[in-house]
Design goal:
Layout: H1 13-23, H2 27-48, H3 54-63, H4 77-85, H5 89-98, H6 109-129, H7 140-147, H8 158-168, H9 172-183, H10 187-190
Length: about 200
């Protein structure tokens, strides 16, 4: 009989960031990784319950696009393989699931949350960058209005933003509000605080 796959992760945040930094050199992609990490850490107790590990969820958010800059055509094969080599199956699986073209079933709360937080976090950051007050005064209704504008942040998969909230069983506006509130304390670090008057 095969042993059950281990739960949890042995990978620390520092190890994950060091690896991300070797594969990802642009500030914009590093900031996206950090933003999704922040949101996933906040999502762990909210969507995963009291036993969810914020460290593991954060690492999933941080590493989900780690191979995109160097190998966009092969994304996310490289990061998934790298994690599996280290026995980090839960992280590898969640990152596999966030790439919806693979059709991987989203089995765990972490799998579903990564899909639900990735695109929408990127979109919310884009909304912040065009506002004089950045994230400080951003409201969900403004984000929802921008989602309807196909010319704005056109690379963002709108369908994934909506489906992600459905997978979590929450209203889209409520999920947007949660992401905004998770990002707000980190506005300066992420460059989304707006222009100082």
């Amino acid at each position: 009989m095969l042993p059950a796959p281990k739960k949890g992760s042995d990978m620390t945040r520092d190890e994950a960031w060091a690896h991300l930094a070797t594969w990802c050199e642009t500030d914009s992609l590093r900031k996206h990784a950090r933003a999704v990490e922040i949101v996933m850490r906040a999502a762990a107790p909210r969507y995963g319950g009291p036993d969810a590990d914020p460290e593991q969820w954060g690492v999933a958010g941080m590493l989900h696009d780690a191979d995109y800059e160097k190998w966009p055509e092969d994304h996310p094969n490289r990061i998934v393989a790298w994690l599996r080599e280290r026995g980090e199956e839960e992280l590898a699986y969640a990152i596999s699931g966030h790439y919806t073209k693979w059709g991987v079933p989203l089995n765990s709360p972490m799998d579903r949350a990564l899909l639900a937080c990735d695109e929408l976090t990127g979109f919310i950051v884009a909304c912040c960058l065009v506002r004089p007050q950045g994230v400080t005064t951003l409201k969900p209704k403004s984000v929802k209005k921008k989602l309807k504008s196909k010319g704005f942040a056109r690379k963002v998969e709108r369908h994934e933003c909506r489906v992600g909230a459905e997978l979590l069983g929450v209203d889209l506006g409520e999920h947007i509000a949660f992401i905004i509130s998770a990002l707000r304390p980190h506005a300066d670090e992420l460059g989304i605080a707006g222009r100082r008057l």
